[in-house]
Amino acid sequence: MTVTQSLFYFLAFVAIFSSLLVVLAKNPIHSVLYLILTFFTLTGEYILLNAQFVGIVNIIVYAGAIMVLFLFVIMLLNLNVQTEPQKTNLIKFIGIITGGIGLVVLTGSLKASDPSNLVVIQNVDMGLVKNLGKVLFKDFLLPFEIVSILFLSAMVGAVLLARKETK
């Protein structure tokens, strides 16, 4: 077993374990922290797959922005056991059925996968951020600049709207 395979299996184990802890954690803050750990392990998997851009975007967007939003919402709602409504038996039964169907689909997809059909990347530079930048600034320069002007005008509009409300 190579180092890359060992790292893959370690990251996969940590991702599965931390995702289980997301669901099983009693405290919602701990659940969010386990979800951040899951995102970091998935970023490691992306980097092993030579998809550095997707890994960095995963960290910036999901582990950064979305998790901060989740933490703020959880803290603002002040969730605790006393205020949480009790779940009916029907809701629990539907959850068990849905989880069982998901387990059957996952098991079927694992049985249908054939490890002999692994894809070997011929171009080792595929998925690198520098290649994405070359394509973005060469072939798609005009749409990129139009989107940047749109974002700039949206920021200016938001500042003007906020400024009018404060007067």
From TrEMBL:
It catalyses: a quinone + NADH + 5 H(+)(in) = a quinol + NAD(+) + 4 H(+)(out). NDH-1 shuttles electrons from NADH, via FMN and iron-sulfur (Fe-S) centers, to quinones in the respiratory chain. Couples the redox reaction to proton translocation (for every two electrons transferred, four hydrogen ions are translocated across the cytoplasmic membrane), and thus conserves the redox energy in a proton gradient. It is a multi-pass membrane protein. GO terms for cellular component: plasma membrane. PANTHER family: NADH-UBIQUINONE OXIDOREDUCTASE CHAIN 6. It is found in: Cell membrane. This is NADH-quinone oxidoreductase subunit J. The keyword Cell membrane applies. It comes from Solitalea agri. Coiled coil: none annotated. Pfam families: Oxidored_q3. Gene3D superfamilies: NADH-ubiquinone/plastoquinone oxidoreductase chain 6, subunit NuoJ. It comes from the Bacteria. Belongs to the complex I subunit 6 family. One of its GO terms (molecular function) is quinone binding. Its EC number is 7.1.1.-. It is an enzyme of class 7 (translocase).
